[in-house]
Design goal:
Layout (H helix, E strand, L loop, with lengths): L1 H17 L4 H7 L4 H4 L18 H13 L7 H5 L4 H13 L2
């Protein structure tokens, strides 16, 4: 069973990285994120994570988890709910491009 789950996750990661997001569109969409995660992806609040330089695939999986409710967080679930798959790819491309 664990091998099946690993195979599915691997396929998902490969599929998500095959179509990269638009960095400029992600930067535009990130304005809503800047209040907590900073305009440059460096958090302004110690309890919120830095997003700059995170792996694109990790950000995609995390945001989809928040959006779909499989990853629970009282702040992030409602923030991610309206995001489309395209929005998520773009945000991930933007944040992963930052140093």
């Amino acid at each position: 069973m664990n091998r099946l789950i690993l195979a599915a996750l691997s396929a998902l990661l490969m599929a998500s990285s095959a179509s990269a997001g638009d960095i400029a569109a992600g930067k535009k969409k990130s304005l809503a994120c800047a209040g907590c995660h900073g305009a440059d992806g460096i958090s302004v609040v110690p309890t919120y994570p830095n997003l700059a330089g995170q792996k694109e695939e990790y950000l995609i999986l995390t945001l989809k988890g928040f959006r779909d409710g499989t990853r629970k967080n009282a702040v992030m679930n409602p923030m991610a709910k309206p995001l489309t798959d395209e929005d998520i790819k773009n945000l991930a491309a933007f944040y992963s491009s930052l140093k």
